[in-house]
Specification:
The complex is a heterodimer of chains A (173) and B (434). Chain A has two domains: 25 residues; 139 residues, OmpA-like domain (60s Ribosomal Protein L30, Chain: A, 2-Layer Sandwich). Helices cover 50% and strands 14% of the residues of chain A. Chain A has six helices and four strands; from the N terminus they run αααβαβαβαβ. A four-stranded mixed beta sheet of chain A has the order 1-4-2-3. In chain A, helix 1 packs antiparallel against helix 5, helix 3 crosses helix 4 and helix 4 packs across helix 5. Chain B is mainly β and 434 residues long. Chain B has two domains: 277 residues, 6 Propeller (Neuraminidase); 129 residues, Rossmann fold (3-Layer(aba) Sandwich), CATH 3.40.50.10070. In chain B, the strands form seven sheets. In chain B, strands 1, 2, 3, 28, 29, 30 and 31 form a seven-stranded antiparallel beta sheet that branches. Chain B has a five-stranded mixed beta sheet with strand order 5-4-6-7-8, covered by helices on one side. The radius of gyration of chain B is 23 Å and the shape is globular. The chains are: A alpha+beta (173), B mainly beta (434). The interface between A and B is large, with 33 and 40 residues.
C-alpha cells in the first residue's frame, strides 16, 4: 500500500503541475523528472502489484484506452485518464523493450505551427505522467501533429472535441 | 467602392486534363479600370492552354484591378497599331487596349508581338499612344509562361505595381480515406492554378512549405518518419535533403533574404524556440529563449525576425533584433495574432487575427498600427503574400472542406479557389520566377 500511495501522491503532484501547464519553468520540469526517478525505485515488477491498487487485469483493461481528450486550449489530463496512463507506464516498466510514441493534436482552429506547439504540450503531459509512473526516457517518444492529423473530419465542436487529443501508439509492444 | 458579384462568378477555368485549381472572382472592384485584350492574331491556332491572349485576359481579370471587355462584343479585332480604329474603342469607355499577334517561326517556335495602347490620351493627340511595345520569341511549351510575363508587364504599366503572374503556389493536398486522413501531397501549381505537380506524397502530414528567395528550392516539414523533420527540395528535379531532425518540434522554416540561412523552430522536447540554421556551415544559433512558445519566424529584414509568441499569455506578434536580441511587441489589438508576414514595401503586416472567436486574415498598417480584417470567413489560416504584396492567398473552410482563397491587401478583391476533392491547405506563394 505504501508504494501505491507514493505513486498516487506523485500523480497528484503531477496533476497540479500539468494544470498550470507549461507556464512552469523548465527548472520545475527537471524537478519533476527527478521525482519520476524516485518513482521508478518504488514500482514492483509487472504482475506483482503489491502495494498498488491496480491488479494486472485492471491495468490491462485500463491500458486499452489509448486516446486521451483535452478541453479547448488546455493540456490538463483528468484524473481518470491518469489511471489509464499509469497502466501504460506499468506495462513499459514490465516490458523494457516496449516503446510508445505519444502523438499530441489540437483542433483545427488557428495557426498551424502554433497548434504544433500546443499539441506538443499535450503529448508532454502524457509523457510526464508516464515517466512519473516509472516509464524510462528511451521508451517514450513524443510527436505533435498539431491540427495536421484530425481523428474526425468536420468543422464543428463535435469534431473538434475528438481532435483535441493525445494518442499512445505502441512502436514495440 | 465595393461591388459584390454574388452568384455571378467569373470563371477562369481552362478545361484541360491536368487543371486542378479553378480560380473565381467572388468580389470585384467597382472602380476597376476598363480595358480590352483583343485576341492575338494566330493565338487561336494553338491549343487552348497555349492561347497567349486568353491567358493574359484571364490573368488581368483575376487581379481584380481591371474590367475586361468581352471578346464576343468586339466588332473589330485589330492585331497591329495601324488597324486600330481609335473612336470605336474610345466610345466603349475603355482606357487601354492590348493587341498582338502570334507568329509561328517553326512548328515549335513562336514569335509574340504586342502593343498596349493608352486610349485616354491624357497628353492630347488623336491616335492611341503605345504605352508598351514588345516582341518575344519562345518555344511552344513556354508560351503560357510568356503570356504570364506579358501580363506582368501590362499590369505594371497600368497599375504602377509589379505583376505576380509569373509565379507559383505550393500547397498541401489532403485526401481523406474512410473518414481518416489518408494521403498528404506537397504540390506546386502555377499562380493561376494551372499544371499542378506533386513534389512529395506520404501518408503522414506535410506542412509549412517555404520558398527560397530565388524560387528554386522549397523547405517544408514532413512527418513521414512519425516525427517532424525539415527538408529542402530542389523544385525542378524534386531532389531533397534533410536539414533538421532534432527531438521534438522541427517546424516553421523561413529563408533569410539572401537564401543562405533558414530560421526555424526547435523544441528539443521542451518548449519551441526560434533558431537560425546556416545552410552552408550547418551552424545552429538560438535566437529566442525563455519558457514561452515562440514560433513562425518571418524575416522582416536581414537583421530582424517577426515571430509568434505567447510570452504575454496569448499568441501575439513580436520582432527580435538578431544583433542585440531585443524583442519588441508588434500587435496590441485582439487576443490572438499569429503567423505574420510583411509586404515587400514594408507597409502592411499580414497575419491570422482572432476576432470574437473567429479566425480571420488581417492586415496591420505598420505606420499607424491600424488593423483591417480582410476576410469574412471564420477559419482562415496560413496567409501567404504574393511577391508584389498586392494579394494574400490563404487557407479557409468552404462547405466543410479546406480550400484556398485569396484577397487583395486592401480587402476589395476576393477570389475563391474551389477544389474537386479532398482538402487543399497551407498555400505558399513563390517569388517572381521571371
Amino acid at each position: 500500500m505504501k508504494l501505491g500511495l507514493c505513486l498516487k501522491l506523485g500523480l497528484v503532484t503531477l496533476v497540479s503541475v500539468v494544470m498550470i501547464g507549461c507556464a512552469s519553468k523548465p527548472k520545475h520540469e527537471a524537478d519533476m523528472e527527478d521525482m519520476s526517478g524516485e518513482g521508478i525505485s518504488g514500482v514492483g515488477p509487472y504482475g506483482t502489484f503489491t502495494g498498488s491498487d491496480l491488479t494486472p487485469e485492471e491495468a490491462e483493461a485500463l491500458r486499452q484506452q489509448r486516446v486521451f481528450y483535452f478541453t479547448y486550449d488546455s493540456s490538463s489530463l483528468p484524473p481518470e485518464d491518469l489511471r489509464a496512463i499509469e497502466a501504460h507506464a506499468y506495462y513499459l516498466v514490465h516490458h523494457p523493450h516496449a516503446r510508445v510514441r505519444i502523438e499530441g493534436s489540437t483542433d483545427s482552429r488557428g495557426s498551424r505551427e502554433y497548434n504544433i506547439a500546443l499539441g506538443e504540450r499535450r503529448a508532454q503531459a502524457v509523457a510526464r505522467a508516464m515517466f512519473l509512473a516509472g516509464a524510462q526516457n528511451d521508451q517514450v517518444a513524443i510527436v505533435s501533429y498539431g491540427s495536421e492529423k484530425p481523428a474526425v473530419q468536420g468543422m464543428n465542436e463535435e469534431a473538434w472535441r475528438y481532435n483535441r487529443r493525445a494518442e499512445i501508439v505502441y512502436e514495440a509492444e | 467602392m465595393l461591388k459584390r458579384i454574388i452568384g455571378l462568378f467569373v470563371l477562369l477555368y481552362f478545361p484541360m486534363a491536368h487543371a486542378y485549381l479553378e480560380i473565381e472572382i467572388t468580389q470585384g472592384v467597382d472602380a476597376a479600370m476598363p480595358i480590352a485584350v483583343v485576341p492575338f492574331q494566330g493565338a487561336d491556332l494553338l491549343p487552348p492552354e497555349l492561347n497567349v491572349s486568353d491567358v493574359i485576359h484571364a490573368d488581368l481579370a483575376r487581379s481584380g484591378e481591371f474590367k475586361l471587355f468581352a471578346e464576343t462584343n468586339m466588332a473589330q479585332k485589330p492585331s497591329q497599331v495601324a488597324q486600330v480604329e481609335y473612336a470605336y474603342w474610345r466610345n466603349l469607355g475603355l482606357e487601354a487596349l492590348l493587341i498582338g499577334e502570334v507568329i509561328p517561326m517553326t512548328t515549335d517556335r513562336f514569335r509574340v508581338r504586342f502593343s498596349l495602347l493608352d486610349l485616354v490620351m491624357k497628353n492630347g493627340g488623336t491616335t492611341p499612344t503605345p504605352l508598351l511595345v514588345r516582341e518575344f520569341t519562345t518555344d511552344k511549351h513556354e508560351l503560357r509562361h510568356l503570356a504570364h510575363h506579358i501580363s506582368d508587364l501590362v499590369y505594371q504599366k497600368l497599375t504602377g505595381f509589379p505583376g505576380a503572374f509569373s509565379s507559383r503556389i505550393a500547397y498541401v493536398g489532403l485526401q481523406w480515406i474512410n473518414g481518416k486522413p489518408g494521403q498528404y501531397r506537397l504540390e506546386i501549381a502555377d499562380a493561376d492554378g494551372y499544371n499542378p505537380q506533386t513534389l512529395l506524397k506520404t501518408g503522414e502530414p506535410i506542412m509549412s512549405p517555404a520558398w527560397s528567395p530565388d524560387g528554386k528550392q522549397l523547405a517544408y516539414v514532413s512527418f513521414e518518419n512519425h516525427r517532424s523533420e525539415i527538408y529542402i527540395a530542389n523544385v525542378s528535379n524534386g531532389q531533397r535533403k534533410k536539414v533538421s531532425n532534432s527531438p521534438g518540434i522541427n517546424g516553421a522554416p523561413a529563408w533569410s533574404p539572401d537564401g543562405r540561412k533558414l530560421a526555424l523552430v526547435l523544441s528539443n522536447e521542451n518548449v519551441p524556440k526560434i533558431y537560425i540554421l546556416d545552410l552552408a556551415t550547418d551552424k545552429l544559433t538560438q535566437v529566442t529563449s525563455g519558457t514561452s512558445i515562440d514560433t513562425e519566424p518571418f524575416w522582416f529584414d536581414s537583421n530582424h525576425l517577426l515571430f509568434t509568441s505567447n510570452r504575454g499569455g496569448q499568441p501575439q506578434i513580436y520582432k527580435v533584433n538578431l544583433t542585440n536580441k531585443q524583442v519588441q511587441r508588434m500587435t496590441f489589438t485582439g487576443e490572438y495574432n499569429a503567423r505574420a508576414s510583411v509586404t515587400p514595401n514594408g507597409e502592411y503586416m499580414v497575419m491570422i487575427h482572432r476576432n470574437q472567436g473567429r479566425y480571420h486574415i488581417a492586415a496591420q498598417n505598420l505606420k499607424n498600427n491600424h488593423i483591417l480584417i480582410l476576410t469574412e470567413t471564420s477559419m482562415d489560416e496560413s496567409p501567404s503574400l504574393a511577391p508584389n504584396g498586392r494579394m494574400v492567398i490563404y487557407g479557409t473552410v468552404d462547405r466543410n472542406k479546406r480550400v484556398l482563397s485569396a484577397v487583395s491587401i486592401d480587402g476589395r478583391v476576393k477570389l475563391r479557389i474551389p477544389t474537386q476533392d479532398g482538402d487543399v491547405q497551407e498555400p505558399a506563394w513563390s517569388p517572381l520566377l521571371m
